Amino acid sequence: MASAEPDPLPADDRARLKAHFDVPPASHPDRWAKLWETGDFLPWDRGTPNPALLELLNQRKDLIGDCFVEDAGKRRRKRALIPGCGRGYDVLLLASYGYDAYGLEVSAKAVERCEEEKRVNGGRYPVHDEAVGAGVSTFLQGDFFSCEWGERVAGGETFELIYDYTVRHLLGLMDIDSSVLPRLIDEQQFFCALNPAMRPAWARRMTQLLSQETPGHLICLEFPTYKDPSTGGPPFGLTPQTYIEHLSHPGEEIPYDESGHVVVGTRGQPTPGSLTRIDHWQPERTHEIGKGTDWISVWRRS
Fold this sequence. Notes:
alpha/beta, globular
């Protein structure tokens, strides 16, 4: 594992991002919308699905199964969710593997960009298995922590697969004050972007969205495990144990020590309805800036 944080963003771009968000927090929604409207400066956008997700779909069916599920005596496609999906590359990939895949974004312009990507470049995502066929890709505007958008999910408001992908391509590159955090939470909704005080709500929301009646899996791409939590964020440094403590006790306050590390074992046995980690590994393939530091964890209900 690398011991130093990657620094893939040129200093000029870092300064540009910081200046872009150097406005009162109430103006941050307009700042996000502006980035999507102009579309010429989206440093979190890598232009392709994450290779780590592709690796998992191809090599770890032993963990997540295939794209179908038995539901009330009928066979249907699994529903998959990617919160903060960006341009929707991973959503389109999951649909090509047979999932009915949903991408969630708080920005209306981001959703338009997703639809554009689907229309213009959908051919880059051929059906993986003709016998299985493709699922449907759908993009929704909404706040991850709100229930409103779930009413627009066909067939139910829960998912058999959730992919929590840290948008390090923005958050890991920006050296911005924590006052930006409320909009980072709304815009990207991923674990490392959240102030530690928001982690209980993240864990609770994940357990709410993960299917109970049919087998469901949460896939987390963990980042940045190399960063000292005491240095602050976003992104906030964390360890794999941080995920374990919160997902084992969703919604509960978990203590941290003075250096920002989670205190292990203070909450006792896992809470009923919590999630259990069933596997954890470093992917052989991932985006360049995550090589040697990214981890994947897979979770299901206890």
